[in-house]
Design brief:
Largest sheet: 7 strands, parallel
CATH superfamily of the largest domain: Glycogen Phosphorylase B
CATH topology of the largest domain: Rossmann fold
Number of strands: 13
Mean pLDDT: 92
CATH class of the largest domain: Alpha Beta
Strand content: 5-15%
Number of domains: 2
Radius of gyration: 20 Å
Order of helices and strands: EHEHEHEHEHEHEHEHEHEHEHEHEHHH
Structural class: alpha/beta
Helix content: 40-55%
Number of helices: 15
CATH architecture of the largest domain: 3-Layer(aba) Sandwich
Low-confidence stretches: none
């Protein structure tokens, strides 16, 4: 049985790790990994395969960064050729990137079954490229693995329930495994001590100059008055900072993007995470760290309902108010909240459930031919 995983961006490598380990347990499965090259910087890409103990990609398309249409088109062209040559039994796609959509469309159009891990997420904001990718991928895929009950509700609302399976979140699997790895090598990882927050900014809506500059100035003032912020700077964000010659105080410590294990330990030790990332909202919740999301919406509404995440957009007044509210609770996440997180996102067995189901799915399709 030949199963192909297509990945291309940092969050997908994290999701791939537990899936790759689970497929290894099946002697009948040949698991091929294709890296589109959507993230091509070593800190954003290859180091993840080393840290997360993922086999090196069998294929690297080296697409690189360009416009959405050009990037997706180039991926589709190369993926279609590879799929036609090797005829895999199923293509596995992850999340909501251009790599996800390209692999799904390339496979579906030549009648290769597609399964989508992390299906059913909706921000209901069509101005986000990720929302377009995830909606189109769900509707073109043959099997949908929803990480949460809310994902299942969304899929049912779009008449996709017959293809959907609730399995828990593979990100939970990845975090549990990776924290153990990180803790075993903690002495080798750089450490940040004392009270600090973690900041990340990379989404196009927040990296427009007229948004990013005032936002960072407000965050700088907040860091000076409350606690310092560690800021791993995404390449897109760093380019804008250089172009604008924006000077920040020492209260914001600019660093290169952190390797995944170091990032997890930084999230775990931080008092609070301020981010516009999707995955980081969940990772913070899994590690018992409060989160302030610098967006107007989130796919992970469960984190809002549980009180471990607050939506503030780029509004400095809302950011300050959220920090004050968390300060009043000493930034703590209660044990009963962690219990609810386990109920919603699973406790680290999603990859086994998914891979077992994928194998049955492929076998049934063979029988029905």
């Amino acid at each position: 049985m030949h199963i192909v995983s297509v990945v291309g961006a940092r969050p997908q490598f994290v999701k791939l790790a537990p899936i790759s380990r689970a497929f290894k347990e099946h002697d009948s499965v040949r698991h091929t990994i294709i890296h589109t090259g959507q993230h091509y910087d070593d800190n954003m890409s290859s180091v993840f395969f080393d840290e997360l103990e993922i086999p090196r990609p069998d294929v690297n398309l080296d697409i690189g960064s360009t416009s959405h249409a050009v990037q997706t088109g180039r991926m589709m062209e190369q993926l279609e050729s590879w799929f036609q040559l090797h005829s895999p039994d199923v293509v596995v796609v992850y999340g909501d990137t251009n790599s996800t959509l390209a692999a799904c469309l390339a496979a579906a159009k030549i009648h290769i079954p597609v399964v989508h891990i992390e299906a059913g997420l909706r921000s209901f904001n069509r101005s986000m490229p990720e929302e377009i990718n995830r909606v189109a991928t769900d509707h073109c895929s043959d099997r949908l693995y929803a990480p949460t009950p809310a994902g299942m509700v969304n899929l049912k609302a779009e008449n996709l329930a017959s293809r959907a399976v609730f399995c828990g979140d593979v990100m939970r699997d990845a975090v549990e495994h990776s924290v153990r790895l990180a803790e075993s090598s903690e002495g080798k990882l750089p450490q940040y001590e004392g009270d600090f927050g973690l900041l990340t900014l990379h989404r196009p809506s927040n990296t427009e100059v007229n948004v990013l500059v005032p936002l960072l100035k407000a965050l700088d003032e907040l860091a000076q008055s409350t606690m310092p912020l560690v800021f791993p700077v995404h390449p897109r964000t760093r380019n804008i900072l250089k172009a604008e010659k924006l000077l920040l105080s020492d209260a914001i410590k600019l660093v290169e993007p952190l390797p995944y294990l170091e990032m997890l330990m930084t999230v775990k030790k931080a008092r609070v995470v301020l981010t516009d990332s999707g995955g980081l909202q969940k990772e913070a919740a899994f590690l018992g760290t409060q989160c302030i999301t610098l967006r107007e919406e989130t796919e992970w509404t469960e984190t809002i309902d549980l009180g471990v995440n607050r939506l503030v957009g780029a509004d400095s007044a809302k950011i300050v108010a959220a920090m004050r509210a968390l300060s009043a609770t000493e930034f703590s996440v209660q044990p009963e909240t962690m219990t609810e997180i386990n109920k919603i996102f699973g406790q680290g067995d999603a990859a086994v459930k998914i891979t077992d189901d994928v194998i049955v799915f492929v076998e049934q399709r063979r029988e029905n031919k």
